[in-house]
Fold:
Amino acid sequence: MNIAIFSDTYLPEINGVAVSVNSLFKLLKKYGHNAYVVTTSSEKEISFVDDVIRIPGLELKKLYGYKASFIYNEKAFQILKKLNLDLVHINTEFGISQFGFIVASKLGIPSVYTYHTMYEDYTYYATKGYFDRFSKWAIREFDKSCMNRATEIISPSEKTKIYIRSVGVEKYINVVPTGFDFERFIPNQEKIEKAKEMKRKIGLNDSDRMLLCLGRIAKEKSFDVIIEGFADYLNKYCNDISSYLVFVGDGPARSELENLTVKLKINDRVKFVGKVDNSLVPYYYIMSDLFLNASISETQGLTFMEAMAANLLVLCRFDNNLVGVIDNNKTGFFFQEVNDFKDKLNYVLNLDQKVQDQVRKNAFESIDCFSEKTFYYNIIEVYKRALRRSW
Structure:
């Protein structure tokens, strides 16, 4: 097949959608398809390099550097027209993705739409708390209009499917969890040695316990819950002098969180590494002792599975989207709110080594259903269904 994948965000940007789109792009090529990515660029001119079309966009600094483009670009359309496309796969909702719907319509081909992001959790970036109820209604209507335009809809989780139904979409919804490449996260001796070296470079000793938070540092990720919980843990279990909380990633909430660590007087036990190259991400998992997450805005939670593939224990706040990903006390651990975080953290850090090893083993076995191969065959079935509906 000849497939164009449309997304407003793509590598080198580091976020769940960018990584998912890149995984899909590489996977389709691996299995012999002609795949192309259409995305934004900070450059002034359109480019078409290595099967990636980049269209100039305006950078939105308050939205973690996302770029907004116009919904139509004639030069890009002429490039796409010559590629003899079979379908388009749309992964975001704004400028580039609206262009994807236009391309599908003009070329008379089907469109597949994946709903990655629950934008109701992000309205505060625009509203600052004002007219929030109206903004959420507008988002729901916009989401519904996008999904109703698509030939086929993909939801990455049951939680997201429930949301899609709640906004009034009655079309069939394909639940297809995003697959990922396990191999790049699995530790080996070479990776472990490089991870140890990188750990020293961020100011930690080999014997220090590293508690990892990785991802976009933004309000909806609830990293403040982790910081407050970690402060409570240090206050209650003051005999722990070797654990450090490490944030890998960047975003609009970073300075606020840094100030919070100063206010709570734990800034000497918290490190902010900043944005890192995607190729280095596996090493941060490997050098860590525990992966922490308090977000309840995820649609699937790829970072949880990446951590599990890297043989890392996971402690996260319970959310419906993690049902089927984490089995409490078997493949990972849940906490409910900041008040019980300190005790859950202490419990996990002091587990018997045999118990830890068994949880790691269970976790690795449980993520097999998120393999690239499974993801590929599920995606192809959706593509075939879209093509049949367009005959």
Residues 11 and 19 are 7 Å apart (CA to CA). Residues 132-149 form the longest helix (18 residues).
